[in-house]
Amino acid sequence: MLKFIRFVAASFAVAVRGKPLYYVWIAFLMLLIGIGVHAYADQYQHGLIRTGMRDPVSWGFYIGNFTFLVGVAAAAVVLVIPAYLYNWKPIKEISLLGELLAIAAIVMCICFVTVDIGNPLRIGHMLPFIGTPNFPSSLLAWDVVVLSCYLTLNFVIATHILFKSYKNEHYNRRFAVPLILISIPTAVGIHTVTAFLFSGLPSRSYWNAAILAPRFLTSAFCSGPAIILILLQILRRTTRLKVTNEALFKIAELMAYAMFINLFLFGAEIFRDFYSGTHHLVHYSYLFGLGRYSDSPIASWAWLSLFCSVAAFLLFLIPKTRRNLVAMNIGAVLIYSGVYIEKGVALVIPGFTPSTLGEIYHY
Description:
Strand content: under 5%
Helix content: over 70%
Number of strands: 0
Distance between the termini: 52 Å
Order of helices and strands: HHHHHHHHHHHHHHH
CATH architecture: Up-down Bundle
Number of domains: 1
C-alpha cells in the first residue's frame, strides 16, 4: 500500500511538471473549465431553458456530446484487438493510451449527463440501494451499468500496468489480459446500449431502426482512432514514447474499413427513406434542407458532415495518401469533424423535428 501511495504521488508530480508551453496549455484548459463552471452555475440558477431547449426539442448538445464521447471511449478496441488478440507488437506498445483515453471520455460522458439532468442531485435516482434505477427494465439503467463497468475495467487495467512499470516489473498477464479481453465486448456494449436508448423510442421514427447500433459502432471506430492518431504524433514529438509509423498507418487502415461500413449503412438508411417515400422522410428532409424545409438551420452542418466523412474515407482508402503523414492528419481531422457533427447535430435534432405533433422548433 505504501508503494502504491508513492506511485500516486509520483504520477501527480509527473503530471504537473513540464516545459513552459505545457503550463500555458494547462492554464488554457483551466480557463475553459472555469468558463464551463460559470455557465453551469447560470444554468443551475435559471434552468435548462438557458440551453435553448424546449418541449419539442428536449435533448440538445449535452446528449450529442455524450453520444459522441461514448464512441470515443469504445474506440480503444481498435488498439486492444490487434495488440492482444493478434499480439501485434507496434500497437501493443501504445495500446495503454487507448485505455487512458477511454477513461477520460467516460468521465466526460458522466459530466455531460450530470449537467443535462439539470439538478445533479437527480443522479441519485440512478444509484442502486439509494434510488430506484429500475434495473433491468430501464435502458438508462443498463447504460449506467455498462458505462460503470467499462470505466472500472479500463481504470484497473491502466493502473495495474502503470504501477507495475513504476516498480520496474512486467504486468501480471493472468490478471490483466482477461480484463483486457472482457473490455472488448464491454466496449461494444456501451455504444450498443446507447444506440438502444435512441432506437427504443417507437414514436421517433428517425431513430427507430435496428441499423442504428451498428452505425454507432462503425462511426465510433473512426472518431476515436482519429484522436489517437493525432495524440500519438504529439506524444512522440514531446516525450520519449516510441511510436512507429507502421502503427499509425495500421490504425489509419482500420479506420478506412470502419468508415466504409459507416457510409454504407448511412446509404442504406437514405435509400430506405427516399425510395419508399413515406412520411418518415420528413426527418431527413429537415436534416438536409430539402423541399419545404429549405430554411433548416442544420442543413449546412449536415452537408458539411457528409463531405468531411466522404473526403476522409477517400484519403484513408488510397494507400499513398494514407501513408503520408500530412494527408493522414488532414483525414483524421475530417473524420473527427464529420462524426462529431453527425452525432451532435445530425443525430439528435432531426429526431425531434418535426415533433410528434408536427411542430417545427428550430433548435
